[in-house]
Amino acid sequence: MTTGKSNRRDLLRSARIAALLPALPFARMLAGQGSGTDKTAKLACNSWPFRGYFDTPEMHQYRDPKLPLITQAEFPEFLADHFGIHNVEFLPQHFSDTQPATIDRVKAGLKKSQSQCCNLMGVEIPHGVYAQGADVETVKREAQRWTTVALALGSPSITVALTGHGPANANVGAERLKPFVDIVHGQGIKVLFHNDSMQLESAETLTSVIKQLGRDKTGTCPDFGNFATKSAAYALSQLKMLAPFASNICHSKDGIADDGKFYPDDFKASMKAMRDTGFAGIYSLEFEGLGDPLPGVRKLMEQTAACL
Predict the structure, then answer these.
(1) Could you tell me which of 214, 212, 220 has the C-alpha nearest to residue 185?
(2) Which of 228, 197, 224, 194 has the alpha carbon at shortest distance from 209?
(3) CA pair distance 170, 176, nearest whole angstrom
(4) Of 151, 149, 152, 129, nearest in space to 139 by CA
(5) Would you give per-residue pLDDT tens digits along the chain (308 residues)?
(6) CA-to-CA distance for 304 and 284, rounded, in angstroms?
(7) Of 105, 26, 19, 116, whose CA–CA distance to 69 is shortest?
(8) Please, are residues 18 and 294 in contact by the beta-carbon 8 Å criterion?
(9) Three-state SS for 255?
């Protein structure tokens, strides 16, 4: 995920068009490719590309009032209607809160669309994970909070962001996260890490944290293109380090936009890197290109399905 601004004019135009058209039968279209297998069963999408559609306390800055307003409870149906996708990756910051009534509505939204939650993407520990002498009780409370959400929604994993002031010290990060991991894993849920920041979440740092915390409890949610701003070759080299630690999910995208410029990754090589490790999990579409996410996700969906 990045914080670059989308082209809101394009977003508005596409949203208006989409409202006038019936949902495209992507599931049926992709089912006709490759041995009659419904490839949408291997695809997911998270809420980050559609951040302009949400309005929550933590993400209010991304809300575009010209776009239709949706909630986490409505997001599963949104994905099913527009893309035929029934694997949903929720961004924790898109929950208005984590009160039982709110989570019950999200659970009902999953049931209504015949969907399932495949990951909670990007839980942030207050004050980060790199500070020495951090409050262990805060870490435990966050673990219990998101474990409760994950259990209610049937999520097999929680992806945690390695944030905070100070250098990216894998030893400090692992020490601070141990009580979080113990609580989450105690309920049969895996803790994943994601290469979102070159400074704080490099492949070298993530794999070191995983080795210290245990591969049975932790793993990666590799992202194809977050480091393409440096170079496509660098992004691919980092992905190849992370891929062997992937378990149930990775992020499929063909590049990333930053400050109005698009940086492509080597998409086909990235898909091959995942296949070469024997990865059999879900490819979550995380469009981060320029412009409207609706056609962007559809294009990425076609690219990913063609490589499965």
Answers:
(1) 214
(2) 194
(3) 10
(4) 129
(5) 544 433 333 333 333 333 333 333 333 333 333 333 588 999 999 999 999 999 999 999 999 999 999 999 999 999 999 999 999 999 999 999 999 999 999 999 999 999 999 999 999 999 899 977 678 999 999 999 999 999 999 999 999 999 998 899 999 999 999 999 999 999 999 999 999 999 999 999 999 999 999 999 999 999 999 999 999 999 999 999 999 999 999 999 999 999 999 999 999 999 999 999 999 999 999 999 999 999 999 999 999 999 99
(6) 10
(7) 19
(8) yes
(9) strand
Q: Are 172 and 129 in contact (CB under 8 A)?
A: yes
**Of 233, 236, 150, nearest in space to 195 by CA:** 236
Angle at 249 between CA 248 and CA 254, to 5 degrees: 155
SS3 state of residue 247? coil
**CA atoms within 13 A of residue 57's CA, in its CB half-sphere:** 4
Q: Which run of H or of E encompasses 151?
A: helix 136-153
DSSP letter (8 states) at residue 254? S
* Residue bearing tokens 């495949």: 118
This model's pTM is above 0.70: yes
Residue-wise DSSP of 177-195: HHHHHHHHHTTT-EEEE--
| Selection from 176, 125, 185, 181 nearest residue 151 by Cα | 185
b/e sequence 267-283, b meaning 16+ C-beta within 10 Å: beebbebbeebebebbb
The CA-atom distances, in angstroms, between 68 and each of 100, 201, 241 are: 25, 34, 39
Which residue spans within the chain are E strands per DSSP? 43-46, 87-90, 116-124, 157-161, 190-193, 218-220, 249-252, 255-258, 261-264, 282-285
State how far the Cα of 226 lies from the Cα of 235, in Å rounded to an integer: 7
How many alpha carbons lie under 13 Å from residue 252 in its C-beta half-sphere? 32
Largest CA distance in the chain: 55
From the DSSP assignment, how many helices (H) and strands (E) are in the chain?
Answer: 10, 10
